[in-house]
Design a protein that fits this description.
Blueprint lengths: L8 H9 L10 H14 L10 E5 L5 H8 L3 E6 L2 H11 L8 E5 L13 E6 L10 H11 E12 L5 H6 L3 H10 L1 E3 L10 E3 L3 H10 L2 E9 L14 H14 L11 E8 L2
Parallel strand pairs: 1-2, 1-4, 2-3, 4-5
Antiparallel strand pairs: 5-9, 6-7, 8-9
């Protein structure tokens, strides 16, 4: 376990919500969203049985479970000890559970993990942007990946947050946000308001490449604002039709600005 002097806001928040976290993401939209995410991940899964992979910002282990089912050996990492325990509970008893290990750690300090070992790292749900230093987190991740190892990560799209500031009727706050890219998690408890770093598509590329990666793919997720139209996803046939349209848009440079998040695939640069 990592040595910690005290809980940071991001850890306090996720420790508190860990036991009910899954319930917050259990509806037709998130099923559709997660199916799209997995479709984007699958081409980059290691082919070797038992390949070592990382699930960074693992939360309750949703993606770790899928990685185990795909035959990988998964190390689950989260800044929240409560989230790590939820992941442990979820994976216990699953086929291949003996291939899972668990670590509470901040992504800016992954020193307890071996270097040059992991074939794939997932960092979904924007955990890199929730660290105090995304550039440092990316460099820590790169050190843990094997040569030609792959990172798949999502980031909050800066352009998608503009509507929030318009709703607040606060031009100075919007100007500051657009300049710095920094906002915070909207929770009532001030002690849980952790900072979030947001990026434009060009900034995501620059950030990742500066850490020693080559970006090989970048998508918007999701371009279609289906979070506001959940009723359209009630039937499986409808979800497939909307997914086909989504995939026709998610690499379109002109459409990326509409997406709530940006998801990259990046390979360690030799």
């Amino acid at each position: 376990m990592s040595r910690r002097r005290g809980k940071t806001p991001v850890r306090r928040y996720h420790d508190r919500v860990a036991t009910r976290y899954d319930a917050s993401y259990d509806d037709a939209y998130w099923q559709w969203h997660d199916a799209l995410t997995w479709d984007h991940i699958k081409p980059h899964l290691p082919r070797e049985a038992g390949a070592a992979v990382l699930d960074l910002g693992c939360g309750t282990g949703k993606w770790a479970a899928r990685l185990l089912q795909a035959g990988c050996a998964v190390t689950c990492v989260d800044v929240s000890g409560a989230m790590v325990e939820q992941a442990r509970k979820k994976l216990t008893g699953m086929p291949g559970a003996e291939r899972a290990s668990f670590l509470q750690a901040d992504l800016i300090d992954l020193g307890e993990l071996p270097t040059g070992t992991f074939r794939l790292a997932l960092a979904l749900g924007d955990p890199i942007g929730c660290t105090t230093s995304p550039p440092r987190a990316l460099k820590e991740i790169r050190r843990r990946l094997a040569p030609a190892g792959v990172l798949i990560a999502s980031f909050d799209n800066r352009l998608a947050a503009i509507d929030h500031y318009l709703q607040q009727s606060d031009p100075p706050a919007l100007a500051s946000f657009l300049r710095t890219g920094k906002t915070h998690w909207l929770t009532r408890d001030q002690d849980e308001r952790f900072e979030i770093h947001t990026y434009t598509p060009a900034q995501v590329r620059k950030l990742t490449e500066s850490a020693g990666f080559e970006v090989v793919d970048l998508i918007g997720k999701t371009v279609l604002p289906m979070r506001h139209h959940r009723e359209l996803l009630a039937e499986s046939a409808a979800r497939r039709r909307w997914a086909k349209i989504e995939k026709s848009l998610w690499r379109d440079e002109a459409a990326l600005g509409r997406a709530s998040h940006l998801q990259i695939v990046a390979r360690v640069r030799g």
